[in-house]
Amino acid sequence: MPGASNTNPTRGQETILLVEDSEMVRALVCEVLEQHGHRVLEARDAREAIGIAEEHQGVIELLLTDLVMPRMGGHELAKRLRRGRKGLKVIYMSGYAGAGIEAVEKGSGFVEKPFKPDALVACVRRVLDESRPAGEDES
User: Fold this and answer.
1) Are 29 and 20 in contact (CB under 8 A)?
2) Which helix (H) or strand (E) holds 41?
3) How many CB atoms lie within 10 A of CB 81?
4) What is the DSSP secondary structure assignment for residue 38, as one 8-state letter?
């Protein structure tokens, strides 16, 4: 339509690696992100996420991960993935009260479960639009 603006601040085209052990939550988050233009790579746990990241040839702009998972939590996963992907930004998700304080203090995004789709999309956009990846060491 002539004169119509195509700028929607919540839409994107970035690739997001989603790591969530709950199939239902993972499916919902994936659907929301894809509806907002993102390409989503899905993993059930940290081990699967590491394999996907190693195999994926393109850029992964954002890791959206559950903070508490069996065998390897979100913080350790982010640390491992950032070794090979220096520009990787991170958002942690958790349903445990107070779990996000550490993540936020480190400069990464945090979304408390349960969350509304709009809150998730806003957090994703905010973190992706930050000029420098949060928590990245200057070495």
Assistant:
1) yes
2) strand 39-43
3) 22
4) -
